[in-house]
Q: What sequence folds into this?
């Protein structure tokens, strides 16, 4: 375990800057997520932390100590690679034991640790299997076990669930969270799957074109994004043009109190599930344009009668209205937030 | 990390240095001497030389076309159908590689000679004898022998290329209404072009510069033979220098023209995740592929079967089978003063050559691929260049180098060709090692080594424990090929080994075959020993790599 500080890291491939003066800190024992679209520099940062890439500028510190000069083998990081990078000429046990031997652990201590981690990922019966004889999910768990076995100062996970099917991915999310908590690991987890980040992460940083766009707890990034791009990345959103007036957002169909901290706004944003049905006295009138059944919820597309602003809301269960009807809606308190048009 | 990078670049520079000294300088030196207007004019005005060049080209093109016609149907059958003995007949396609064309010519002459097997049958039937090997028959004989020796190179490239074509691409064409012929012409054939190019160029250049087979047929109207024969009067007639330059230029031109004609690049990724499901042919038809493979293999080994018969014969003249059998030729072969020393010499030259080829080949494959050195593409191109430089040119270059450059005078081939022969063998086999290792590295993600480093293994430990075991088979196969090809090498051996005490196997075989009387039978017996030895070597290689062996023959 370690407190990890990333300080003004820059990295370019040729003339193309990938990481641009990147700085943030991961607390001891924290599961920190880096989210962003493909090519935004997440994996590059991970490889820099592991020592597999050298940054053009900046520093990495573990517990305040710079580790920039350390080669990969001295950094005490353990990475779960996207394609697992399991050594195909070794068995499951040998994969883990070799990692332990490299970390200086041998003999009975190493054997015991191999059994322990295999048990924690529920693969104790597969110890002597060769890697190609395992399923994708099992390989993923071996990769995780190998990384956990060495008790790294920093666990690095590079989209480890991207090759699994939806059901297995869901199971593994829970397991990763449990294991990280139990082993009290500091972990940096890279993905572009927001569900993964919400369900496992203590904190999330959203990366865009080589810089951190916004970081915070999962709920903060979801409900209170600071930019339109961030809001769009984390889920469906309604964007309403208007202007700030004190603590309110002025729109053609009414003035609404703003939540969140941002007031330097290009537009306002509210998530579909934060719009609710109301009555004539407390709501604004809208015409229902479209009702779509999604299974666990129903999506309703409406247009405000004043100003003709298109909005989308989501209701659990069946729809309380039909296309063509007039309904009254209101925003849940503090859920309309001002966001910048640009990053 | 910086010191490691520096070391990688230093190794890269060392490889370039090796190729500059042992390829660029000697070949460039010969080319520079040969590049004189007067000599050029002499060559291009002399009908003997022009005829030699024309004949060499004719042999190269004919051999390549023959090889293509033989192998394309077989490769398609192997790729698409399940048939009895499929793996066995595929393995048998390797046989010609252990059958030196050089001594195969003896067997071929025994079969088709004026007093050979076929004419014996004709005489028995009361039909007049035919001079198969006279006139244009000699040209066809050389082409057929070379084609029968080289077809595995082309076949392996085709099979590998076919294996890389995603069957879904052809399924999609069928789904769009394309007939089998349309699918073959518009989908399969264009996707096969890189494989055809890789194998075709090797066959083309190889047969263009082949020295051994034409020598056995006493065919002097070929450029390679004219260069060889010119060696003895080099002091008074420098024309061979120009002939070497012309051979080099034509080889490069053949390479460029083939590339232009066949196009395609190795970067075209056609491999999908779909596995081709082999089809079964109905009824008796399922035996047809086996018969086709069997027929080609039989034709390929026929000269060598005849060679075995010659080796066991006391008298073999005007008859289908030898008149009398004997083991004396084998004993005589082993007791001949040329034979045992030549085996020892070949082993020494080939072992050193293999070590050099493996060392440089592995480093070059790592440098151009895994280490991603700047200029890696140029390094790759440089180490593959020997494939386009005929052996006769390299050998001639070394002779020239040892005479011309003061620093190289210690390598004098006339005094002791050990070092020069080993280097000459190695330089021309390095491409095979590089391709074998590069193919292994391509199938071994760099991430595996990175993962080991991430878990605390040093760079060297990660390489030794992770990468080396995974590409070990490829390195070994590259080495085995380098070794067996070195043992069979003809051009360098004939030119660089001038004193009998330094003769390698092929030169000893040539000398034995020139002895009037029992020479052919003793040479044949010696050839059989050589084939047995090489069979064991290549059998091991095939068992190790299976289908991946084709990667060794990619340009």
A:
């Amino acid at each position: 375990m370690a407190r990890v500080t990333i300080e003004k890291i820059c990295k370019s491939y040729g003339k193309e800057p990938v990481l641009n003066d990147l700085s943030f800190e991961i607390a001891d024992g924290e599961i920190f997520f880096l989210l962003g679209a493909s090519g935004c520099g997440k994996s590059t940062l991970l490889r820099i932390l592991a020592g597999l890439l050298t940054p053009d500028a900046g520093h990495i510190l573990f517990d305040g100590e710079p580790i920039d000069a350390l080669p990969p083998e001295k950094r005490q990081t353990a990475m779960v690679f996207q394609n697992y990078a399991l050594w195909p000429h070794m068995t499951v046990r040998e994969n883990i034991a070799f990692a332990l031997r490299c970390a200086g652990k041998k003999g009975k201590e190493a054997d015991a640790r191999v059994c322990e981690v295999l048990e924690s990922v529920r693969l104790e019966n597969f110890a002597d299997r060769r890697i190609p004889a395992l399923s994708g999910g099992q390989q993923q768990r071996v990769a995780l076990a190998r990384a956990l076995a060495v008790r790294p100062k920093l666990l690095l996970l590079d989209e480890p669930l991207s090759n699994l099917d939806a059901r297995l991915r869901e199971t593994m999310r829970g397991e990763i969270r449990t294991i990280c908590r139990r082993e009290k690991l500091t972990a940096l987890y890279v993905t572009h799957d927001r569900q993964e980040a919400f369900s496992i992460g203590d904190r999330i940083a959203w990366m865009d074109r080589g810089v951190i766009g916004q970081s915070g707890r999962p709920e903060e990034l979801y409900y209170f994004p600071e930019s339109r791009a961030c809001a769009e990345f984390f889920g469906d959103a309604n964007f309403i043009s208007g202007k700030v007036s004190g603590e309110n957002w002025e729109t053609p169909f009414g003035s609404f109190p703003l939540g969140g901290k941002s007031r330097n706004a290009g537009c306002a944003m509210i998530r579909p599930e934060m719009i609710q049905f109301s009555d004539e006295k407390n709501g604004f009138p809208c015409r229902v344009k479209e009702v779509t059944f999604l299974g666990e919820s129903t999506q309703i597309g409406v247009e405000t009668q004043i100003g003709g602003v298109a909005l989308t809301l989501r209701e659990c269960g069946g729809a309380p209205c039909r296309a063509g009807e007039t309904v009254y809606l209101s925003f849940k308190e503090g859920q309309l937030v001002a966001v910048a048009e640009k990053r | 990390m910086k010191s490691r990078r520096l070391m990688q670049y230093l190794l890269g520079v060392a490889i370039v240095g090796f190729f500059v000294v042992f390829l660029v300088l000697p070949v460039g030196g010969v080319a520079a001497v040969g590049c004189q207007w007067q000599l050029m004019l002499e060559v291009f005005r002399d009908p003997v030389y022009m005829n030699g060049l024309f004949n060499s080209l004719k042999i190269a093109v004919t051999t390549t076309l023959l090889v293509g016609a033989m192998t394309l149907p077989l490769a398609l059958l192997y790729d698409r159908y399940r048939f009895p003995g499929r793996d066995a007949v595929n393995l048998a396609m390797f046989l010609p590689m252990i059958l030196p064309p050089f001594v195969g010519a003896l067997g071929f002459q025994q079969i088709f000679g004026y007093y050979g097997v076929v004419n014996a049958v004709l005489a028995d039937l009361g039909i007049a004898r035919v001079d198969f090997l006279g006139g244009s028959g000699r040209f066809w004989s050389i082409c057929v022998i070379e084609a029968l020796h080289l077809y595995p190179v082309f076949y392996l490239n085709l099979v590998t290329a076919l294996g890389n074509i995603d069957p879904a691409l052809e399924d999609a064409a069928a789904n769009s209404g394309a007939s089998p012929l349309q699918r073959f012409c518009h989908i399969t054939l264009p996707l096969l072009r890189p494989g055809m190019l890789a194998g075709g160029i090797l066959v083309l250049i190889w047969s263009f510069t082949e020295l051994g087979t034409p020598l056995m047929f006493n065919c002097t109207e070929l450029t390679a033979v004219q260069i060889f024969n010119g060696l003895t009067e080099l002091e008074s007639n420098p024309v061979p220098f120009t002939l070497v330059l012309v051979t080099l230029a034509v080889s490069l031109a053949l390479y460029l023209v083939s590339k232009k004609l066949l196009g395609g690049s190795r970067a075209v990724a056609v491999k999908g995740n779909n596995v081709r499901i082999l089809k079964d042919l109905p009824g008796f038809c399922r035996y047809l592929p086996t018969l086709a493979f069997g027929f080609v293999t039989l034709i390929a080994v026929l000269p060598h079967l005849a060679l075995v018969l010659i080796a066991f014969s006391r008298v073999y003249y005007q008859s289908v089978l030898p008149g009398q059998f004997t083991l004396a030729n084998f004993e005589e072969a082993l007791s001949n003063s040329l034979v045992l020393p030549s085996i020892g010499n070949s082993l020494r030259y080939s072992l050193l050559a293999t070590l050099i080829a493996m060392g440089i080949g592995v480093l070059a494959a790592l440098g151009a691929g895994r280490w991603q050195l700047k200029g890696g593409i140029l390094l790759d191109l440089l180490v593959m260049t020997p494939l386009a430089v005929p052996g006769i040119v390299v050998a001639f270059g070394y002779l020239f180098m040892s005479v011309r450059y003061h620093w190289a005078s210690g390598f004098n081939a006339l005094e002791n060709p050990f070092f020069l022969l080993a280097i000459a063998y190695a330089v021309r086999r390095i491409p095979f090692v590089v391709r074998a290792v590069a193919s292994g590295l391509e199938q071994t993600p760099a991430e595996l080594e990175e993962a080991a480093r991430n878990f605390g293994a040093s760079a060297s430990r990660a390489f030794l424990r992770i990468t080396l075991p995974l590409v070990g088979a490829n390195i070994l196969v590259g080495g085995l090929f380098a070794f067996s090809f070195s043992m069979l090498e003809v051009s360098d051996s004939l030119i660089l080994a001038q004193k009998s005490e330094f003769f390698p196997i092929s030169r000893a075989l040539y000398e034995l075959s020139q002895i009037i009387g029992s020479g052919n039978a003793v040479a044949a017996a010696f050839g059989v020993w050589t084939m047995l030895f090489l069979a064991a070597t290549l059998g091991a290689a095939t068992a190790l790599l299976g289908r991946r062996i084709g990667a060794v023959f990619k340009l």
Summary: Chain A touches chain B at residues 50-52, 54, 71-79, 81, 83, 85-89, 98-99, 102-104, 146, 150 (CB under 8 Å). The longest helix of chain A spans residues 166-182.
